[in-house]
Structure to design on (715 residues):
């Protein structure tokens, strides 16, 4: 949109001309005699008065034309030159400023282009000198990428807020395999996204709690693991290791190592089949051995031939039994490897975690009787903590218990863990009823039951009471674990830490504070575009394609995109087909907008939306709110308006014109994803130009956008 300044200049010129005429008329009038004034009055009243008016009007037109001509030659041309020079300096070094306006400004533009050419030459020379250094960095990056891609385990690295900073292809495959990307609850893995969309928040928080407990115990290599269900239903073993930074060794991030448990589950099934095979195959041989042994013992004076026959039976059955055992062990050797979900853990750490959970969730007082330091149990700590918390919540809700005590001690090959309370005796059948009900923790409910937890541990629980002392408790009987054996460590050789590649991955993302106050460079964006059946959303036109790409940390992530055709269930205008080339026949079997919008909303989660002429696209989304139940309440930035902010004196703010000014190559125009990619590149080039004008926060960008002409566009 062109500036209002020309109108201002023309008006000012006309006003100046009128002022000069009025001043001249006043001076002349004061200098005239009485007779001359009378003659002038007669002239103004005569038939020549219209000629004077026409002359005055002609003078004003000539004055306006001269003012407009002068404005275009000097102020307007100077402002355009300044805007283009700023583009050259900040956004597009290959740009050449236009040589329009007065001769002096054309000469200045030529000098600016000469300086730009010399600057570009210097930049090319600098690029040549730094090419070798960049090549070394790229080589290290390629090595790191190759190493990550070849790992058999999935790796996801997050900061302490759970934002994904790094992941490899194996992790993406494990978390996506079997998941239905067409469902609205599908959460893709991507940079800047939250890990809590893929892994249960409670499990991750519990893992961090255990790591902090290990820190408190003085461990220098804390880690833990848990079993999680991937979005597709696949069982994953997740190992969590903290990343420590700074002189104080504070937790700066988390490294999640993911492993598919399909093979382990298969081995567990093998273990069951092994036991069944041994039981079935050995039963007959053992019965024969027992019968032969009993016969030999009952008849000590048995004839030698008969005794030899029984001894032969014993030897034959023993060999057969040994052979069956060897075959079974060979066939099911993998089934003898370790437990699926249990790990060895110090009881004092386990009780500390349970105590904190009870205090945080129920807001009750929990006393702790410190158990022996060397007491270890083999447990699924998340499941057991959930079970104890759920029982305490039942007592708190149903019986009003507000104070608990935790204690534990060893008994033979087991550990007894007690949840103790005072004063209230529960019914003898209460525990039996609670065993089969889903466990609850605060307002959350899980499908896991107390019986499931006990079966997983091979443990038991029962209710006991000391009525004279008005004390009762639930006692868990769990298998003892083994303390890790100390290993000899070799002192590290002093020297510099090896450098691999610095991605700055663990620098904390700015996700705090009011959104409007956050810097534009710190935000995560979803740049999107739509193709439609026509240009009138309020008249019934529909979306037929949505394309989107994400911007994280100032990078356009071309591999993290959303692209979907949509069945509009109505004809497409011939004019629209000529623009985007999408025929109605190609959309017949595509999902409807009611299916697509919830998925797109999930893709845009926790981001700022960016589009070119966003009012048009947002109107289509708003009209579908009632049918889909999806509201796009994200902040929206429009590259059309942002361009008008940084270049108010340019002739055009069409996407192609902006891309040409900023040096963005246009590919795939008039496809939703292609336009989204171009818009994303344009948006990144506009950010430094906005910063040049002091617009650095989201709130400032939105406020400046509302002040432009183009913000008045309605659809």
């Amino acid at each position: 949109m062109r500036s209002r300044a020309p109108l201002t200049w023309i008006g000012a010129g006309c006003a100046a001309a009128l002022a000069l005429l009025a001043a001249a008329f006043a001076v002349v009038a004061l200098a005239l005699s009485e007779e001359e004034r009378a003659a002038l009055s007669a002239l103004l009243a005569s038939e020549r008065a219209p000629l004077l008016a026409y002359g005055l009007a002609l003078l004003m037109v000539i004055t306006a034309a001269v003012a407009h001509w002068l404005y275009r030659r000097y102020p307007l041309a100077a402002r355009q030159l300044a805007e283009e020079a700023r583009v050259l300096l900040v956004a597009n070094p290959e740009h050449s400023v236009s040589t329009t306006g007065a001769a002096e400004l054309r000469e200045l533009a030529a000098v600016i282009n000469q300086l730009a050419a010399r600057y570009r030459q210097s930049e090319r020379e600098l690029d040549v000198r730094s090419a070798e250094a960049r090549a070394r960095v790229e080589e290290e990056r390629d090595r790191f990428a190759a190493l990550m891609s070849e790992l058999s385990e999935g790796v996801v690295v997050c900061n302490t807020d759970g934002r994904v900073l790094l992941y490899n292809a194996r992790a993406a495959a494990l978390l996506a395999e079997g998941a239905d990307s067409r469902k609205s609850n599908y959460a893709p893995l991507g940079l800047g996204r939250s890990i809590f969309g893929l892994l249960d928040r409670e499990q991750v928080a519990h893992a961090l709690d255990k790591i902090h407990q290990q820190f408190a115990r003085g461990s220098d290599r804390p880690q833990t693991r848990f079993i999680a269900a991937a979005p597709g239903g696949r069982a994953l073993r997740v190992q969590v290791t903290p990343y420590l930074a700074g002189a104080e060794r504070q937790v700066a991030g988390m490294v999640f190592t993911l492993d598919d448990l399909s093979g382990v589950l298969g081995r567990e099934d093998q273990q069951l089949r092994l036991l069944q095979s041994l039981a079935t195959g050995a039963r007959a041989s053992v019965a024969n051995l027992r019968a032969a042994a009993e016969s030999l013992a009952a008849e000590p004076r048995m004839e030698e031939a008969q005794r030899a026959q029984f001894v032969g039976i014993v030897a034959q059955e023993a060999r057969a039994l040994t052979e069956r055992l060897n075959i079974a062990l060979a066939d099911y050797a993998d089934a003898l490897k370790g437990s699926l979900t249990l790990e060895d853990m110090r009881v004092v750490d386990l009780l500390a975690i349970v105590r904190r959970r009870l205090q945080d969730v129920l807001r009750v007082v929990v006393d702790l009787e410190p158990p022996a330091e060397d007491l270890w149990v083999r447990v699924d700590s998340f499941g057991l903590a959930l079970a104890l918390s759920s029982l305490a919540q039942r007592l708190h809700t149903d019986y009003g218990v507000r104070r608990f005590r935790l204690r534990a001690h060893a008994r033979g090959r087991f550990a007894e863990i007690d949840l103790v309370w005072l004063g209230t005796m529960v019914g003898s059948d209460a525990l039996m009823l609670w065993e089969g009900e889903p466990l609850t923790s605060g307002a959350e409910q899980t499908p896991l039951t107390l019986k499931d937890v006990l079966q997983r541990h091979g443990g038991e629980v029962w209710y006991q009471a000391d009525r004279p002392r008005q004390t009762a408790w639930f006692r868990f009987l769990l298998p003892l674990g083994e303390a890790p054996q100390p290993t000899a460590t070799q002192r590290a050789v002093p020297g510099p830490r090896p450098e691999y590649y610095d991605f700055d991955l663990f620098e904390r993302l700015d996700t705090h504070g009011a959104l409007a106050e956050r810097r534009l460079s710190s935000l995560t964006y979803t740049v999107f575009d739509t193709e439609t059946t026509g240009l009138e959303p309020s008249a019934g036109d529909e979306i037929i394609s949505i394309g989107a790409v994400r911007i994280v940390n100032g990078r356009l992530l071309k591999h993290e995109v959303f692209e979907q055709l949509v069945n509009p269930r109505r004809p497409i205008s011939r004019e629209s087909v000529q623009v985007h080339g999408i025929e109605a026949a190609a959309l017949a079997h595509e999902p409807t907008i009611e299916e697509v919008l919830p998925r797109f909303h999930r893709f845009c989660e926790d981001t700022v939306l960016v589009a070119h002429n966003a009012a048009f696209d947002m109107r289509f989304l708003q009209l579908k709110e009632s049918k889909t139940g999806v509201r796009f309440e994200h902040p929206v930035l429009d590259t059309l308006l942002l361009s008008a902010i940084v270049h108010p004196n340019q002739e055009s703010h069409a996407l192609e014109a902006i891309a040409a000014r900023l040096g963005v190559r246009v590919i795939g125009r008039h496809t939703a994803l292609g336009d989204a990619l171009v818009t994303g590149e344009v948006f990144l080039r506009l950010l430094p130009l906005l910063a040049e004008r002091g617009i650095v926060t989201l709130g400032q960008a939105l406020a400046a956008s509302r002040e432009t002409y183009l913000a008045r566009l309605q659809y």
Q: What stands out?
A: Residues 1-5, 333-340, 487-509 have pLDDT under 50 and may be disordered. The longest helix spans residues 103-150. Residues 467 and 695 are 72 Å apart (CA to CA).
